[in-house]
Amino acid sequence: MRKDAHEILYNPRLNKGTAFSEAERELLGLTGLYPDAVEDSATQQRRALAQLERRANDLERYVYLSELQDRNERLFYQLLRADAPRHMPIVYTPTVGEACQKFGHIMRRPKGLYVSLKHRGRIAEILRNWPESDVRIICVTDGERILGLGDLGVCGMGIPVGKLALYTAVGGVPPARCMPVVLDVGTNNAAFLDDELYPGLRRERLRGDDYDSFVEEFVMAVQQVYPRACIQFEDFHNTTAIPMLARYRDRVSCFNDDIQGTASIAVAGLFAACRALGNSLVDHRYLFFGAGSAATGIADLVVQAMMQRGVPESDARARIWLMNSKGVVVKDNPGIQPHQVAFVREGELIKTLPEAVRALQPTVLIGTSTQPQTFTREVVEAMRAYCERPVIFPYSNPTSKSECTAEQAWTWTDGAAIFASGSPFPPVELGARMLVPGQGNNVYIYPAVGMAVYATEAARVTDEMFLKAAEALSARTTEAELSVGLIYPPLDRIHQSAVAVAVEVAELIFDRGFARVERPRDIDAWLRAKVYDPSY
């Protein structure tokens, strides 16, 4: 076999399988290495779909698609683009949660870069082992807080791998410009440490100053090796995620999707809910069940959005309450964390959600608790007693952690609730109505912001960019879609929505002077020309 033919056969970015023409096969030395039929991509997709459907469950389908990505990258992305509603829940949430839990048992070809404590002092050298020299988007986790599943250590690699696949499929960032990374600092997951197939360091997690210095070396090594890259911090524990973002957001191009991306998709949902209700953000009272980094990130962006519309900060904050594991975040709450201080309220410590709803009378209830089935019938009906159309957003992932289902929220409110969830739920038939739940998934936001940052080479990523993304996304939902319950654009046009959002974010990046490239005359056409096209 010719050397160049071997490289093409086993390089997923070059291989297109039976779609090579006869002339290409002769030219590249591939004649005889495939069956004689020359097939178009539609035929290849039909074969892949048939093989996918023969898999017994979604985890097996996840493994199949992962292997397809390793064989023929463009065909993999053709499938994702062709039917996003069908394949995104397999490639990412909710299936990726199970894939991470079983990562050590289903791992085939290694994906991503594993930077471990053994590499201290030489992380820049390890980064240079990555086969691409122009990385622009790095998604990195230390695996401590994977979705709502907890500490999965190095098995958390499934998250950055899945995230970056959607950067490409949804946002259009070229896959060669993306790099998934796990920082292997150990794990406190006893079951993993006892599992002979766990592929990471077998030690307890590094903490404190030593941990911070390890992350510092990684971040600075990225600046050295990939100076145009943006770092997305993903699924770090609250105790590290919040100070980490504060430490780096004004030093390098970076963001935290769990904080800023989640905030943006939630605020986009609130903008759309206000469209459906004919009111504005300031007309609502907000109760967050769960007071981690996701909740405070959403709350902060809600405050910024109201302030941008002329509402004083004190008035905006007065409309927001948080609940942590001890109850409503008031001065007497014994469990207040540093990131919750800005939202501490005066008043009595209310310990349960039903009591809080009755006392505070929120019109918007947002779940970021990872406590399943906590938006009970009692809670939802209590809201309905004083609010004709309550806004109910159980955002916890995966599906098993959702605070309630779409069917529950709509059944208990006779279809009046405005609903969105973090995980997908099927349509709900309610009498003569068919209601379609929206999935408030960050995938609507981070690929769009990432595409804008990639195109402009933005030196910084700001909260204002995520607020702009929220505004742009909410405008993409039509009146007809709002009427059937959808508050986000349907997944079957998520790619088109993401590119449109990316254009608006790119305009803001140029306006604020963060771009490291010259401003084009036509930003829309310029950015769209950079969007990855997986077709042959």
Description:
- By secondary structure, the chain is of the alpha/beta class.
- It has four domains: 1-39, no CATH class; 95-252, Malic enzyme, N-terminal domain (Rossmann fold, 3-Layer(aba) Sandwich), CATH 3.40.50; 260-442, 3-Layer(aba) Sandwich (Rossmann fold); 444-478 and 489-528.
- It contains 24 helices and 14 strands.
- It has a seven-stranded mixed β-sheet with strand order 8-7-6-9-10-11-14, with helices on both faces. Strands 1-3-2-4-5 form a five-stranded parallel β-sheet, sandwiched between helices.
- Helix 18 (377-386) links the parallel strand 9 and strand 10.
- Helix 4 (58-71) crosses helix 5 (73-82) and helix 10 crosses helix 20 (446-456).
- The chain is globular and about 75 Å long.
- The model has no long low-confidence stretch (mean pLDDT 96).
